[in-house]
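Can you give me the bound-state structure? Components:
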Amino acid sequence: MHKVIFDTDPGVDDAMALLFLHHHPDIDLIGITSVFGNASIETTTRNALFLKQAWNIDAPVAKGANETYNPNRPHVDWPAFIHGDDGLGNIGVPETVDIPCDSRPAHRFIIEMVRANPGEVTIVAVGRMTNLAIALREDPEIASLVKAVVIMGGAFDRPGNITPAAEANIHGDPEAADVVMTAPWPVTVIGLDVTVQTVMTRSLLADIVAAGGPRARLLSDISQFYIDFYENHVKDGMVVHDSCACVYVVAPELFRTRSGPIRVICGGIADGQTIQKPDSQIFPPNDWDNLPSQQVCIAVDPKGVLDLIAGTL
Ligand code: BDR
Ligand code: CA
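Here's the bound-state model for the whole set.
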Protein backbone atom coordinates (compact mmCIF):
# COMPACT_ATOMS: atom_id res chain seq x y z
CA MET A 1 0.00 0.00 0.00
CA HIS A 2 1.36 3.44 -0.95
CA LYS A 3 0.62 6.28 1.45
CA VAL A 4 0.21 9.30 -0.81
CA ILE A 5 0.00 13.05 -0.23
CA PHE A 6 -1.39 14.66 -3.38
CA ASP A 7 -0.10 18.20 -3.93
CA THR A 8 -2.36 19.67 -6.58
CA ASP A 9 -3.89 22.73 -8.26
CA PRO A 10 -7.31 21.47 -9.43
CA GLY A 11 -7.42 21.81 -12.40
CA VAL A 12 -9.23 19.42 -14.75
CA ASP A 13 -6.49 16.82 -15.20
CA ASP A 14 -5.78 17.19 -11.46
CA ALA A 15 -9.39 16.16 -10.81
CA MET A 16 -9.01 12.98 -12.85
CA ALA A 17 -5.76 12.20 -11.04
CA LEU A 18 -7.47 12.71 -7.68
CA LEU A 19 -10.25 10.28 -8.60
CA PHE A 20 -7.62 7.75 -9.69
CA LEU A 21 -5.79 8.03 -6.36
CA HIS A 22 -9.06 7.74 -4.47
CA HIS A 23 -10.11 4.57 -6.28
CA HIS A 24 -6.87 2.67 -6.75
CA PRO A 25 -6.74 -0.25 -4.31
CA ASP A 26 -2.98 0.03 -3.69
CA ILE A 27 -3.14 3.70 -2.72
CA ASP A 28 -3.95 5.12 0.69
CA LEU A 29 -4.58 8.81 0.05
CA ILE A 30 -3.61 10.43 3.37
CA GLY A 31 -3.85 14.08 2.36
CA ILE A 32 -4.53 16.62 -0.35
CA THR A 33 -2.51 19.83 -0.35
CA SER A 34 -3.55 22.69 -2.60
CA VAL A 35 -1.29 25.09 -4.43
CA PHE A 36 -1.90 28.02 -6.79
CA GLY A 37 -1.40 27.30 -10.49
CA ASN A 38 -4.32 26.42 -12.73
CA ALA A 39 -6.24 29.04 -10.71
CA SER A 40 -5.68 31.15 -7.59
CA ILE A 41 -5.08 29.41 -4.26
CA GLU A 42 -8.59 30.32 -3.14
CA THR A 43 -10.06 28.64 -6.22
CA THR A 44 -7.86 25.53 -6.24
CA THR A 45 -8.50 24.98 -2.53
CA ARG A 46 -12.24 25.43 -3.00
CA ASN A 47 -12.06 22.96 -5.90
CA ALA A 48 -10.18 20.39 -3.81
CA LEU A 49 -12.87 20.66 -1.13
CA PHE A 50 -15.61 20.47 -3.76
CA LEU A 51 -14.15 17.25 -5.24
CA LYS A 52 -13.56 15.79 -1.78
CA GLN A 53 -17.22 16.35 -0.95
CA ALA A 54 -18.61 15.25 -4.32
CA TRP A 55 -16.56 12.05 -4.39
CA ASN A 56 -16.73 11.31 -0.67
CA ILE A 57 -12.98 11.32 -0.20
CA ASP A 58 -11.81 10.92 3.41
CA ALA A 59 -8.42 12.61 3.08
CA PRO A 60 -8.09 16.11 4.58
CA VAL A 61 -7.39 19.15 2.40
CA ALA A 62 -4.64 21.52 3.59
CA LYS A 63 -4.44 24.92 1.97
CA GLY A 64 -1.13 25.78 0.36
CA ALA A 65 0.97 28.60 -0.92
CA ASN A 66 -0.47 31.77 -2.33
CA GLU A 67 2.67 33.05 -3.97
CA THR A 68 5.96 31.89 -5.42
CA TYR A 69 8.91 30.69 -3.33
CA ASN A 70 10.90 33.74 -4.38
CA PRO A 71 8.60 36.64 -3.38
CA ASN A 72 10.28 38.93 -5.94
CA ARG A 73 9.16 36.80 -8.86
CA PRO A 74 6.36 38.52 -10.83
CA HIS A 75 2.94 36.92 -10.75
CA VAL A 76 2.06 34.55 -13.61
CA ASP A 77 -1.58 34.56 -14.75
CA TRP A 78 -3.85 31.52 -14.43
CA PRO A 79 -4.46 29.50 -17.64
CA ALA A 80 -8.24 30.01 -17.60
CA PHE A 81 -8.36 29.24 -21.31
CA ILE A 82 -7.34 25.63 -20.51
CA HIS A 83 -9.12 24.87 -17.21
CA GLY A 84 -11.90 27.51 -17.21
CA ASP A 85 -12.38 30.50 -14.94
CA ASP A 86 -13.38 28.21 -12.08
CA GLY A 87 -10.48 25.83 -12.73
CA LEU A 88 -12.93 22.96 -13.31
CA GLY A 89 -14.20 23.58 -16.81
CA ASN A 90 -16.78 26.25 -15.90
CA ILE A 91 -19.28 23.69 -14.63
CA GLY A 92 -20.57 26.12 -12.01
CA VAL A 93 -18.71 25.05 -8.88
CA PRO A 94 -20.36 26.74 -5.85
CA GLU A 95 -18.53 29.83 -4.54
CA THR A 96 -17.92 28.13 -1.22
CA VAL A 97 -17.99 24.53 -0.06
CA ASP A 98 -19.29 23.84 3.39
CA ILE A 99 -16.50 21.63 4.73
CA PRO A 100 -13.37 22.90 6.46
CA CYS A 101 -9.73 22.69 5.51
CA ASP A 102 -7.19 21.08 7.80
CA SER A 103 -6.02 23.65 10.34
CA ARG A 104 -2.40 23.44 9.14
CA PRO A 105 -0.94 25.15 6.08
CA ALA A 106 0.07 22.67 3.39
CA HIS A 107 3.82 22.72 4.09
CA ARG A 108 3.21 22.02 7.82
CA PHE A 109 0.76 19.26 6.95
CA ILE A 110 3.40 17.67 4.70
CA ILE A 111 6.08 17.91 7.39
CA GLU A 112 3.89 16.42 10.10
CA MET A 113 2.55 13.57 7.95
CA VAL A 114 6.06 12.66 6.80
CA ARG A 115 7.39 12.72 10.37
CA ALA A 116 4.45 10.62 11.58
CA ASN A 117 5.07 8.00 8.84
CA PRO A 118 8.86 7.87 8.38
CA GLY A 119 9.94 6.13 5.19
CA GLU A 120 6.36 5.54 4.08
CA VAL A 121 5.01 8.67 2.39
CA THR A 122 5.04 9.24 -1.35
CA ILE A 123 4.38 12.85 -2.37
CA VAL A 124 2.77 13.22 -5.79
CA ALA A 125 3.14 16.86 -6.86
CA VAL A 126 1.26 18.00 -9.95
CA GLY A 127 1.25 21.79 -9.60
CA ARG A 128 3.84 24.39 -8.67
CA MET A 129 6.49 22.92 -6.34
CA THR A 130 6.02 25.77 -3.87
CA ASN A 131 4.58 23.80 -0.92
CA LEU A 132 7.31 21.18 -1.17
CA ALA A 133 10.08 23.78 -1.31
CA ILE A 134 8.70 25.60 1.75
CA ALA A 135 8.43 22.29 3.62
CA LEU A 136 12.08 21.55 2.82
CA ARG A 137 13.14 25.03 3.91
CA GLU A 138 11.33 24.65 7.24
CA ASP A 139 12.39 21.07 7.91
CA PRO A 140 15.21 19.85 5.64
CA GLU A 141 15.32 16.50 7.46
CA ILE A 142 12.08 15.39 5.84
CA ALA A 143 14.13 14.70 2.70
CA SER A 144 15.52 11.60 4.39
CA LEU A 145 12.10 10.54 5.73
CA VAL A 146 10.07 10.62 2.50
CA LYS A 147 9.74 7.38 0.53
CA ALA A 148 9.46 9.03 -2.89
CA VAL A 149 8.54 12.26 -4.67
CA VAL A 150 6.80 11.93 -8.03
CA ILE A 151 6.38 15.13 -10.01
CA MET A 152 4.37 16.06 -13.08
CA GLY A 153 6.36 18.85 -14.61
CA GLY A 154 9.14 19.84 -16.91
CA ALA A 155 10.13 19.19 -20.50
CA PHE A 156 13.56 17.66 -20.95
CA ASP A 157 14.06 16.48 -24.52
CA ARG A 158 11.38 18.63 -26.16
CA PRO A 159 9.92 22.18 -26.02
CA GLY A 160 7.75 23.35 -23.15
CA ASN A 161 4.05 24.16 -23.27
CA ILE A 162 4.00 27.63 -21.75
CA THR A 163 7.17 28.91 -23.42
CA PRO A 164 9.47 27.17 -25.90
CA ALA A 165 11.69 26.32 -22.94
CA ALA A 166 9.35 25.63 -20.04
CA GLU A 167 6.43 23.51 -18.89
CA ALA A 168 3.70 25.30 -16.92
CA ASN A 169 4.14 23.74 -13.45
CA ILE A 170 7.85 24.54 -13.43
CA HIS A 171 7.54 27.91 -15.15
CA GLY A 172 5.07 29.03 -12.48
CA ASP A 173 7.70 28.70 -9.73
CA PRO A 174 11.16 27.78 -11.05
CA GLU A 175 13.03 28.54 -7.81
CA ALA A 176 10.78 26.14 -5.91
CA ALA A 177 11.25 23.45 -8.55
CA ASP A 178 15.03 23.82 -8.40
CA VAL A 179 14.96 23.38 -4.61
CA VAL A 180 12.82 20.26 -4.92
CA MET A 181 14.79 18.63 -7.77
CA THR A 182 18.17 19.18 -6.08
CA ALA A 183 17.13 18.03 -2.60
CA PRO A 184 18.49 14.70 -1.31
CA TRP A 185 15.24 12.77 -1.66
CA PRO A 186 14.31 10.35 -4.45
CA VAL A 187 12.55 12.32 -7.18
CA THR A 188 10.97 10.95 -10.35
CA VAL A 189 9.86 13.55 -12.87
CA ILE A 190 7.11 12.78 -15.36
CA GLY A 191 7.33 15.62 -17.86
CA LEU A 192 5.79 16.56 -21.17
CA ASP A 193 8.22 14.12 -22.84
CA VAL A 194 5.84 11.35 -21.82
CA THR A 195 2.57 12.97 -20.69
CA VAL A 196 1.69 14.37 -24.12
CA GLN A 197 1.63 10.80 -25.41
CA THR A 198 -1.19 9.87 -23.03
CA VAL A 199 -4.26 11.22 -24.80
CA MET A 200 -7.70 10.21 -23.59
CA THR A 201 -10.23 10.24 -26.40
CA ARG A 202 -13.86 11.31 -26.00
CA SER A 203 -14.87 7.75 -26.66
CA LEU A 204 -12.70 6.36 -23.85
CA LEU A 205 -14.07 9.03 -21.51
CA ALA A 206 -17.61 8.02 -22.54
CA ASP A 207 -16.79 4.36 -21.77
CA ILE A 208 -15.55 5.40 -18.32
CA VAL A 209 -18.79 7.32 -17.69
CA ALA A 210 -20.90 4.40 -18.88
CA ALA A 211 -19.18 2.04 -16.45
CA GLY A 212 -18.41 4.48 -13.64
CA GLY A 213 -21.71 6.06 -12.59
CA PRO A 214 -22.23 9.56 -11.11
CA ARG A 215 -18.62 10.13 -10.03
CA ALA A 216 -17.40 9.53 -13.55
CA ARG A 217 -20.25 11.69 -14.88
CA LEU A 218 -18.99 14.66 -12.85
CA LEU A 219 -15.47 14.00 -14.10
CA SER A 220 -16.75 13.98 -17.66
CA ASP A 221 -18.67 17.25 -17.14
CA ILE A 222 -15.55 18.89 -15.73
CA SER A 223 -13.46 17.63 -18.64
CA GLN A 224 -15.49 19.02 -21.56
CA PHE A 225 -13.93 22.52 -21.57
CA TYR A 226 -10.41 21.06 -21.30
CA ILE A 227 -11.03 18.47 -23.99
CA ASP A 228 -12.30 21.22 -26.33
CA PHE A 229 -9.03 23.09 -25.75
CA TYR A 230 -6.87 20.03 -26.34
CA GLU A 231 -8.77 18.97 -29.44
CA ASN A 232 -7.66 22.21 -31.05
CA HIS A 233 -4.04 21.23 -30.34
CA VAL A 234 -3.75 17.46 -30.06
CA LYS A 235 -6.77 16.70 -32.28
CA ASP A 236 -8.20 13.52 -30.82
CA GLY A 237 -8.61 13.97 -27.09
CA MET A 238 -7.25 15.33 -23.83
CA VAL A 239 -3.80 14.96 -22.36
CA VAL A 240 -3.97 13.39 -18.88
CA HIS A 241 -0.73 14.91 -17.54
CA ASP A 242 -1.35 14.60 -13.83
CA SER A 243 -2.77 11.08 -13.89
CA CYS A 244 0.54 9.90 -15.38
CA ALA A 245 2.35 10.80 -12.16
CA CYS A 246 -0.25 8.87 -10.14
CA VAL A 247 -0.03 5.85 -12.42
CA TYR A 248 3.75 5.85 -12.00
CA VAL A 249 3.34 5.24 -8.25
CA VAL A 250 1.52 1.93 -8.79
CA ALA A 251 2.84 0.88 -12.21
CA PRO A 252 6.39 2.20 -12.77
CA GLU A 253 6.94 -0.61 -15.27
CA LEU A 254 4.84 1.40 -17.76
CA PHE A 255 7.60 4.05 -17.89
CA ARG A 256 11.31 4.09 -18.72
CA THR A 257 13.51 6.48 -16.77
CA ARG A 258 16.95 8.04 -17.10
CA SER A 259 19.03 8.86 -14.04
CA GLY A 260 21.02 12.01 -13.40
CA PRO A 261 20.91 15.30 -11.52
CA ILE A 262 18.38 17.94 -12.52
CA ARG A 263 18.55 21.74 -12.42
CA VAL A 264 15.95 24.36 -13.27
CA ILE A 265 16.83 27.59 -15.06
CA CYS A 266 15.66 30.56 -12.97
CA GLY A 267 15.41 33.73 -15.06
CA GLY A 268 16.05 34.90 -18.58
CA ILE A 269 14.58 33.66 -21.81
CA ALA A 270 14.75 30.01 -20.70
CA ASP A 271 13.08 30.71 -17.33
CA GLY A 272 11.66 27.44 -15.99
CA GLN A 273 13.58 25.14 -18.32
CA THR A 274 14.44 21.74 -16.83
CA ILE A 275 17.81 20.18 -17.61
CA GLN A 276 19.12 16.77 -16.65
CA LYS A 277 22.75 15.71 -16.83
CA PRO A 278 22.49 11.99 -17.64
CA ASP A 279 24.64 9.87 -15.33
CA SER A 280 25.79 7.96 -18.40
CA GLN A 281 27.48 11.04 -19.86
CA ILE A 282 30.97 11.99 -18.68
CA PHE A 283 31.98 15.66 -18.33
CA PRO A 284 35.00 17.38 -16.82
CA PRO A 285 34.48 18.16 -13.10
CA ASN A 286 31.71 20.75 -12.72
CA ASP A 287 28.95 22.12 -10.49
CA TRP A 288 26.65 19.17 -11.21
CA ASP A 289 28.95 16.63 -9.62
CA ASN A 290 27.63 16.79 -6.06
CA LEU A 291 23.94 16.93 -6.90
CA PRO A 292 21.69 13.94 -6.17
CA SER A 293 20.87 11.75 -9.11
CA GLN A 294 17.12 11.80 -9.88
CA GLN A 295 14.92 9.97 -12.39
CA VAL A 296 13.41 11.54 -15.50
CA CYS A 297 10.83 9.60 -17.51
CA ILE A 298 11.85 9.31 -21.13
CA ALA A 299 9.41 6.72 -22.47
CA VAL A 300 5.91 5.52 -21.67
CA ASP A 301 3.45 2.83 -22.64
CA PRO A 302 0.47 5.16 -23.32
CA LYS A 303 -2.04 2.37 -23.82
CA GLY A 304 -0.98 0.72 -20.58
CA VAL A 305 -1.40 4.03 -18.73
CA LEU A 306 -4.81 4.79 -20.25
CA ASP A 307 -6.07 1.23 -19.63
CA LEU A 308 -5.05 1.46 -15.99
CA ILE A 309 -6.75 4.85 -15.56
CA ALA A 310 -9.93 3.66 -17.26
CA GLY A 311 -10.02 0.41 -15.30
CA THR A 312 -9.49 2.24 -12.00
CA LEU A 313 -12.04 4.98 -12.61
C1 BDR B 1 0.41 20.83 -16.06
O1 BDR B 1 -0.10 22.17 -16.03
C2 BDR B 1 -1.45 22.16 -15.64
O2 BDR B 1 -2.21 22.85 -16.59
C3 BDR B 1 -1.90 20.73 -15.56
O3 BDR B 1 -2.78 20.52 -14.47
C4 BDR B 1 -0.64 19.94 -15.40
O4 BDR B 1 -0.32 19.75 -14.05
C5 BDR B 1 0.75 20.47 -17.48
O5 BDR B 1 1.70 21.33 -18.01
CA1 CA C 1 -1.92 20.21 -12.25
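A couple of observations. The chain has a mean pLDDT of 95. The first strand starts at residue 2 and ends at 8.
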